[in-house]
C-alpha cells in the first residue's frame, strides 16, 4: 500500500507526496486505519507551515479514520470502527488508543473532525471562572470562534459574537443562537461592563483592547487567536490602562493547559474534551451543511492558495482521502 501525505515542500508550495515509508509495526496498544478526512487549520497551517521556513513539513492535526487493525492489547476499538485523532494530512493513521476517540455511530466524518477545533476553546470553558448564565463575548467567528460560540451556548452562557465579515455574520445569524455584532458594543450600556468572559479568537490587538473595555470588573479576557501580525498602532499603555483600572484578568487561551490524558486528580483533559465535543456534535451542536469544502489531496496547492488569498467561502476545509484508493489511484 502506497502511503500518501500532503507536504509543504517550499514556501507557499504544497504537494501530495507518495511512497512514504509505512508507520512501522503495530504496537500492542495501537490502532491503524485508512484516513477518511483530515481538517485544515487555516491559521496555523498557513502562517506556520505554508509560509514558514522549514521544509519539507507535513501539516495537519485532525483526522477521522476507519480502523483496519488493532494491537493485541487494545480494548476500546475493533476493526471497522470510525475514530478521531490528532493526525496529519496523510492517507493512513496509526496512534495509541489513548490518543484516539471513537466517533459515535451515525455521526458524519466531516462533522466529527470538527472536534479538534472545538477542543481549542474547550480548554477555556473548563478553566474559566465564569459560570452558566454569565455573558460571554466571542470576537472573531472564523472556524475556532464559530465553534467557540456554539460551545458556550451549549454550556448555558449568554453568548454575543463580534464578526465584521458579512458572510460570516450571515452564517452566525442562521443558527439563531446568539446576538451578532460587527464590532464590540462598547457604547451599549446594556452590554458594556456586563461581560464575564471575552474569548478573543481573531488575533487582532484592537479586539483585545476592546474586550478589556467591555468586560465587567474582574472579568476575564482569554487570548485564543494567534496574533500572527501587527494590525494597528495601538500602544501597550492603552491595554495596560484598561487592565489596571478595570481589574481585568488577561490570560492565554493556551489549549495545552490541560494534560492530554486524564488522571486520578485531574479529570479534565484534552482527550476528554474531544470525547465531549464528539458527544455534543452528535447531539446536533452545529449543522455543517453548506459550511464544508471537501478538497482533493492530490492538489493541495489549490486549496492553500485559495485560503491564503481568501477565495474560499467555506468555513471549514478538509482533505477527502476517499479520492485516493489504497494504491494511490483515483477513487472518486
Q: How would you describe this structure to a colleague?
A:
With 332 residues, the chain is of the alpha/beta class. It has 2 domains: 3-114 and 288-323, Alpha-Beta Complex (Quinone Oxidoreductase, Chain A, domain 1), CATH 3.90.180.10; 118-257, Rossmann fold, CATH 3.40.50. It contains 9 helices and 15 strands. Strands 3, 4, 5, 6, 7, 14 and 15 form a 7-stranded mixed β-sheet that branches. A 6-stranded parallel β-sheet has the order 10-9-8-11-12-13, sandwiched between helices. Helix 3 (115-127) crosses helix 4 (143-154), helix 3 crosses helix 8 (270-282) and helix 6 packs parallel to helix 7 (236-246). The chain is globular and about 60 Å long.
Amino acid at each position: 500500500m502506497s502511503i500518501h501525505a500532503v507536504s509543504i515542500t517550499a514556501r507557499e508550495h504544497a504537494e501530495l507526496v507518495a511512497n512514504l515509508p509505512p508507520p512501522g509495526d503495530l504496537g500492542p496498544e495501537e490502532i491503524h486505519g485508512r484516513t477518511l478526512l483530515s481538517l485544515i487549520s487555516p491559521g496555523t497551517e498557513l502562517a506556520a507551515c505554508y509560509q514558514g521556513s522549514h521544509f519539507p513539513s507535513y501539516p495537519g492535526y485532525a483526522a477521522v479514520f476507519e480502523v483496519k487493525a488493532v494491537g493485541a492489547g487494545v480494548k476500546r476499538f475493533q476493526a471497522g470502527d470510525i475514530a478521531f485523532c490528532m493526525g496529519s494530512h496523510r492517507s493512513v493513521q496509526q496512534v495509541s488508543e489513548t490518543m484516539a476517540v471513537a466517533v459515535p455511530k451515525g455521526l458524519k466524518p466531516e462533522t466529527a473532525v470538527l472536534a479538534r477545533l472545538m477542543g481549542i476553546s474547550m480548554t477555556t470553558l473548563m478553566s474559566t471562572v465564569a459560570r452558566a448564565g454569565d455573558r460571554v463575548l466571542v470576537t472573531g467567528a472564523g472556524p475556532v470562534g464559530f465553534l467557540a460560540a456554539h460551545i458556550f451556548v451549549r454550556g448555558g452562557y449568554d453568548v454575543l459574537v463580534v464578526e465584521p465579515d458579512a458572510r460570516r455574520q450571515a452564517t452566525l445569524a442562521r443558527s439563531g443562537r446568539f446576538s451578532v455584532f460587527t464590532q464590540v458594543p462598547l457604547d451599549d450600556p446594556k452590554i458594556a461592563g456586563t461581560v464575564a468572559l471575552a474569548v478573543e479568537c481573531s488575533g487582532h490587538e484592537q479586539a483585545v483592547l476592546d474586550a478589556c473595555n467591555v468586560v465587567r470588573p474582574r472579568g476575564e479576557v482569554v487570548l485564543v487567536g494567534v496574533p500572527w501580525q501587527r494590525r494597528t498602532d495601538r500602544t501597550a499603555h492603552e491595554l495596560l490602562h484598561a487592565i489596571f483600572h478595570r481589574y481585568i484578568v488577561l490570560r492565554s487561551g493556551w489549549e495545552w493547559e490541560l494534560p492530554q490524558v486524564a488522571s486520578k486528580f485531574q479529570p479534565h483533559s484534552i482527550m476528554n474534551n474531544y470525547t465531549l465535543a464528539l458527544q455534543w456534535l452528535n447531539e446536533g451542536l452545529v449543522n455543517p451543511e453548506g459550511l464544508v469544502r471537501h478538497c482533493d489531496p492530490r492538489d493541495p496547492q489549490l486549496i492553500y492558495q485559495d485560503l491564503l488569498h481568501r477565495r474560499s467561502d467555506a468555513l471549514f476545509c478538509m482533505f477527502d482521502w476517499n479520492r485516493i484508493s489504497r494504491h494511490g489511484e483515483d477513487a472518486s
